[in-house]
Design brief:
about 220 residues; alpha+beta; Jann2411-like fold; two-stranded antiparallel ribbon
């Protein structure tokens, strides 16, 4: 079911966009207006499963297990929780983007910490996926694993991605695309922090075309 009218539905929408250089912001961009029409990529539980797999936040085998073990409507309800988390975080980003994140922002993060405290992540020693040539590196390695006890556990890797953004990135470089109608956000990792567009192929190209038309019109 489409949670809001006027949004593109799965059969007509483009693939989810991962252009932000930070998964926490890509999560915010799971609803966006990259061109003219708003697109919702988390309208249903099936959408949430697809987005998590495309984001590589949860493996396909785990997602398959959660899907099979969920009762009817459960995943749709979790997608609703994900959308609510997304809009809560959007407000946080709106308030703090473009400036250093200060310690007093912690008081706003209680909803996120409540999700994170449910996590059941643990470490196991496993075979290293790709044994290295360096003889000083052994064939065994740590691997973080998680107990996926219910469908709402799918919110945990999203909450972790948000936390990584908050704790490990510079909010000064969280920016909004300068495209007139675009709503996409991104983390500017470019040299000199000069990034202006969600994508040069979309909004950057449109800006160039508009500038070209303006120059032609003034001749």
């Amino acid at each position: 079911m489409n949670p809001r009218p006027g949004l593109l539905m799965p059969q007509t929408r483009p693939p989810a966009m991962f252009i932000a250089d930070a998964l926490g912001i890509d999560f915010l961009n799971s609803i966006a207006t990259p061109v003219d029409t708003p697109v919702e990529w988390l309208a249903t539980g099936a959408d949430l499963i697809e987005w998590l797999e495309r984001a590589k936040l949860v493996t396909a085998d785990v997602l398959g297990t959660v899907r099979r073990s969920s009762i009817p409507g459960e995943l749709d309800a979790v997608a609703g929780q994900a959308r609510a988390l997304r809009e809560w975080f959007r407000e946080f980003v709106r308030q703090h983007k473009g400036k250093p994140l200060k310690a007093d922002a912690l008081q706003e993060l209680a909803p996120l910490n409540r999700i994170l405290e449910r996590d059941e992540e643990f470490l196991q020693i496993v075979k290293r996926d790709r044994p290295r040539d360096d003889p000083g590196i052994g064939a065994l390695a740590w691997r973080p694993l998680r107990r996926w006890r219910s469908a709402d556990s799918l919110l945990l890797p999203i909450a972790r991605a948000i936390g990584d953004l908050i704790c490990n990135e510079d909010f000064v470089q969280v920016k909004a695309c300068e495209g007139p109608a675009c709503t996409l956000l991104f983390l500017d990792r470019t040299h000199g922090h000069a990034r202006r567009w969600c994508s040069m192929a979309v909004c950057g190209n449109r800006a160039k075309q508009a500038a070209h038309r303006a120059r032609r019109g003034s001749e």
